[in-house]
Amino acid sequence: MSATVKTPSRVVMCPSCSTKNRVPAVAAGVPRCGNCQNPLPWVVDTSDADFAAVADKSTIPVLVDVWAPWCGPCRMVSPALEQLATELAGKLKLVKVNADEAPAVSRRFEVQAIPTLVLLNHGQTIVKQVGAAPIPALRSWLTDHLPPHEAESAQEDDSSTRSVGP
Known about the structure:
Elements: E1 10-13, E2 20-23, E3 42-46, H1 51-56, E4 62-67, H2 72-87, E5 93-98, H3 103-108, E6 116-121, E7 124-130, H4 135-145, H5 148-162
Helix pairs in contact: 4-5
């Protein structure tokens, strides 16, 4: 099996300066804007084949969203998770896994219902949540369970990230 990641990069608009940046699925460190150098939201769609490289080997905590396109609650929670990934840019990587296309990931995390959210740090499960929740509950859940360094930074930045417009 090749170590090459097949998951394509994504073009992300910087929340600070609106510059478009290409963000790879796998990188050392944290993706930053080429113009203003601020951290960028890191959202990656992956599969069984690339999951280890994309999620387990990440240098920052990873929120795994196991979802399916036919799942109404999954489609409702997805924008909230992307907003949180933007608020926690540089502190969290959001990895989205389609349960129908990634049965090995679903088995690994013992997914029995979707959406299932799994917070990882260096490939180890920190906490798992099943079901959709409103963004304030998800924000609280994440900041309560992020490793200490990331959680402190998220709480310090919380007031400034909430005031940023759409």
